[in-house]
Amino acid sequence: MKNKFSPYVPRLATLKSKKKLSDYVTLFRFEQDNGRPLAHSPGQFIQVSIFGIGEAPFSITSPPIREHHYFEIAVRKIGSVTTALHNLKPGDKIGVRGPYGSSFPMQKFIGKDMLFIAGGLGFIPLRSVLNYMIRHRDEYGKIMLLVGTRNPKERIFIDQLEEMSKREDIKVLETVDVPDETWKGNVGVITTLLPKITIEPENTYVAMVGPPIMYKFVIAECKKMGISEDKIFVSLERRMKCGLGKCGHCQINGLSCCVDGPVFCYTDIASLEEAI
Amino acid sequence: MSAHVVYLEQLPSLFEKWKEKFKLFVPQKKGDYYLLQEYERGQEICFDYDVIYNPIKSFLFPSYETLLDFDLKTYASKPVVDAEPQILFGIHPYDIKAINQLDQLMEMGSVDVNYRARRDKTVIMGLEPLRVAKTAFWSFMDAEKVDFGFDLFWTKIGPSAFVVEVGSVLGEELLFVNGKVDVATAAEKEVARRKHQEIVKKAKMQNVLKFPNTDIPKVMAKSFNSYVWIEKSRKCLSCGSCNFICPTCYCFDIQDEVDDLLKKGKRYRTWDGCMLRSFASIAGGHNFRKQVFERYRHRYMRKGRYIYDLLGELGCVGCGRCIQSCPARIANPLEIFNFLWEDVSYEK
What we know:
By secondary structure, chain A is α/β, with parallel strands linked by helices. Chain A has helices spanning 80-86, 106-109, 123-135, 158-166, 212-224, 266-269, and strands at residues 11-20, 25-32, 45-50, 54-59, 70-76, 93-100, 113-119, 143-149, 170-176, 186-187, 204-209, 232-235, 251-252, 255-256, 263-265. Chain A has 2 domains: 11-100, Beta Barrel (Elongation Factor Tu (Ef-tu), domain 3); 106-235, Rossmann fold. Helix content of chain A is 18%, strand content 31%. Chain B folds into 2 domains: 3-205, no CATH class; 213-347, no CATH class. The relative contact order of chain B is 0.16. At the A-B interface, strand 4 of A face strand 4, strand 5, helix 3, strand 10 and strand 11 of B.
């Protein structure tokens, strides 16, 4: 029975570089030891193993690009696996299973305007979609990005945000819940940004990721703006443990977030009591 | 398939023969409970048990199971898929139904290789119940009879005779290891049928589900915001007994373990339960089922509705184990189903 296949066996990947994004969040770039790209779609997640510590799910933040053999995850130092990840040095190994789960429907978005709503670390999975669209910029319409952060110190991907706000084809709006003396931008929760943009509701798709509390309010605001439910896509966070739809931790009513999600069209989950 | 007659005195020699190739587990009485334990020569077998206290899933999906062996130096890992041939003798129909359900769930989407390997090496020998547990209501959950999922099915038709229904080729081979046995006559088969009818009738006399079980998913769908969840779960200790004892619960957790020298380790899975407080909590401390009633409700929704949506059959087989094991005496699916049905019907 020795060489039997098991879906729990991770592939190896090597840490190529680390970049600090904020006090607790770091961007990690990995390359798979088998030399192949990860072959993921924007919105999917992977299970990262640090042997001896455990396994945890992370959203992939890099877009799928044929020439790029690396993939990136951005991680907040908050538990045992994430702390172990932060202690890695370039050249160290991790185990990777996946990519798992559903992804944002990039084909559906072609020719449409996009409204990204990112709350806190929700920007991490959305960055995969956003960078994919920027790379194929001519295929998509207007791109609007709303970013909400708890306080200015926790802002992530600041360089990219600044670079994008200089571009004319992307509209970037930022807000923080609690400002400090250095902050000169908007203040307030993310829903306060929505009145500041103008959209064509029939032609706009929404992709949003954020903390659990955010969805209910933002979806209500979007509906007020005239966006229909089938044009709203959310990515939900649950405790994915096996990634195969077996272990039960990520159940949302009868669905398994790891195989049926994490990306859902809002119409599919609007009737589920436990989803939003 | 065919049916045969086996006499009690033939059993020891059959068991001895089977033990050469299989681990043989039979129902035995231990104190106040009946357990499925390994057979040893000359041991008494309990044919008239009411319910086996250890859930049968533990023989196919053990509470602790190694998935991977890994090396911390080289970071190499290899899968561990252990399975030993085993015979589970004397399994009641409702437990066979639970195994059939697990087979389907473990096969859906990504196949669970560890479960599958064990299941492939397991022979299941059913047994017609002779007694009904005080807490059982399987006769109302379509679990009084199974048509598949067993290799042999035994019905005790008298003090020393059994009618044995063959369910698979392997089952027939095992029955004939000591030479062919008599084919059951029409009269003997009729006795077996009557034994079945008798026990079902007996089971239907107690713990009555007041409405057809096909309505349970509909009733559950209307009851998400019922007050019964809060009221019942007030006493819940979140101990997870009902999860671990349930023959159809299969949630698990995956963890790592390293040896003293920090050189080698293994990744294993253990049973987990949706009634436990941290079951749906994520990094950062958010818990998607923080309140006891949310977890309590999730468990019954899963049994009465979510599994039905997936497979078209209920997730509860009515074995009554959870009713016995709950220290707070609140885990009672029958009571919940009946109550919600009355509640929902009354609203109309």
